[in-house]
Amino acid sequence: MGSSEIVAAEVLQGDPVVNRRGELLGTVEDLAIDVRRGRVAYALVTRDGTTRRLLPIPWEALDREGVPGRWILDMDPGEMERAPCLDADDADWALQVREFYRVPGER
């Protein structure tokens, strides 16, 4: 797909998520799509290389900063330890996730 900003989700799988100091925070495992709005809602990130504990990071919280192959998240590794996991049984999980990453709620 060349240098386009439109890529297949599988191209992003395995991309590292780092903070501005370059510390590894996790790896993109998959993407969660908001089908009603037709956009990416969350990057599903794993810290331990397994899908046991997927961390849904709001798409707006990530920055590419012009560097393909990695994502920047303004967070310390210690904060990531407290990040909420994907929990389909909890009706408020999306709100909790957005508050944790300091991303405004849906309008």
Mean pLDDT metric: 84
Helix content: 10-25%
What gyration radius follows from the Cα positions, in whole Å? 13 Å
Structural class: alpha+beta
What characterizes the major β-sheet?
6 strands, mixed
- Poorly predicted regions are none
Number of strands: 6
List the helices and strands and how they pair.
Blueprint: H1 9-12, E1 16-18, E2 24-34, E3 39-46, E4 54-58, E5 62-63, E6 71-73, H2 77-81, H3 93-100
Parallel strand pairs: 1-6
Antiparallel strand pairs: 1-2, 2-3, 3-4, 5-6
Short description:
By secondary structure, this protein is of the alpha+beta class. It has helices spanning 9-12, 77-81, 93-100, and strands spanning 16-18, 24-34, 39-46, 54-58, 62-63, 71-73. The longest helix has 8 residues, at 93-100.
Describe this structure in words.
The structure is a single chain. This protein has about 110 residues and is α+β, with helices and mostly antiparallel strands. Helices cover about 15% and strands about 30% of the residues. The protein is built from three helices and six strands. It has helices at about 10, 75-80, 95-100, and strands at about 15-20, 25-35, 40-45, 55-60, 60-65, 70-75. Strands 4-3-2-1-6-5 form a six-stranded mixed sheet. Strand 2 and strand 3 (about 40-45) form a beta hairpin. The termini are far apart. The model has no long low-confidence stretch (mean pLDDT about 85).
Give descriptors for this structure.
3 helices
